[in-house]
Amino acid sequence: MRITILKDESAFNLAVAWKIVEQILAKPNALIGLATGRTTGGIHKAVADICRSYPFDVSSVRFYGVDEIVMVPETFSGSCANMIRRELTDPLGISDNLVMPPTLADDYDRAGLAFAAQLDSLGGADLQILGIGPDGHVGMNLPGAPFGSETRFTKLSGELEERIRKSAPEYPKDAPLGGITLGIRTIMRMPKLILAAKGAAKAEIVERAVRGPVTENLPASVLQLHPCVEVMLDADAASGLR
Ligand code: GLP
Q: Cα(34) to centroid of ligand 1, in Å?
């Protein structure tokens, strides 16, 4: 496990953004998995800024999200697809190259399988960016998610659901929400992973994920077993590392 510590938030955004750009330069039609949330917004903006400053061909790169909120209309402002479009693929002019599961479906288990099959048919991911939740979740693999899990429909946790609802206050409080997420085994099969975390609030969980026991109770801890994972942190998120 390689750990890279950047001095502040802007260095962190740029360093992770350059990893994405390097992947595109190395393989122009790469398939790159993104994560959404507070950690990755600045990274996505930095990728768009780099592409504006150093124009190169991004027309054949494909992006997808590690997870998506479902049981809501496409227009739901908190959906991962909307965030990725807003932050990255619209500015790059390549939103047609974004692959996401549908937010509404008759059968969400089947929609999850179809999403997995679509990613496989595109050749599988070359690089996956991951964030970490305050309880150590990755994607929507919450504590207790089996290490053998594959892409699937999942329920949300209280904390995660509350956060999502806050980000899209227009959505009725009593309407149910679910998720489709890549599974732990799906992620562990990928050739290259980056776990990105910033801010002091992540310091303790980062320490436990990278140095603590590997356990299904802390999903991100499984990444210790991946042969090619880089943990990229700003100084605050790294402040708990022993
Ligand atoms: C959500 C997303 C994850 C993300 C995590 C961390 O659960 N589904 O993909 O990595 O939160 O989010 P944040 O960066 O906002 O802390």
A: 11
Determine the distance separating the centroid of ligand 1 and the alpha carbon of 72, expressed in angstroms. 18
φ, ψ for residue 7 (rounded to 5)?
A: -70, -30
The alpha-helical segments, DSSP class H, found in the chain are: 9-26, 41-53, 80-84, 90-92, 108-121, 158-167, 184-188, 203-211
Q: Could you count the other beta carbons within 10 Å of the beta carbon of residue 29? A: 13
d(CA 178, CA 13): 29
Which band of pLDDT confidence, cut at 50, 70 and 90, is reported for residue 74?
confident
CB proximity list for 22: less than 8 A, separation 6 or greater: none
Per residue in 149-202, pLDDT (tens digit) is: 999 999 888 888 888 888 888 788 888 889 999 999 999 999 999 999 999 999
Name all residues whose Cβ lies below 6 A of ligand 1: 35-39, 66-67, 131, 133, 137, 139-140, 160
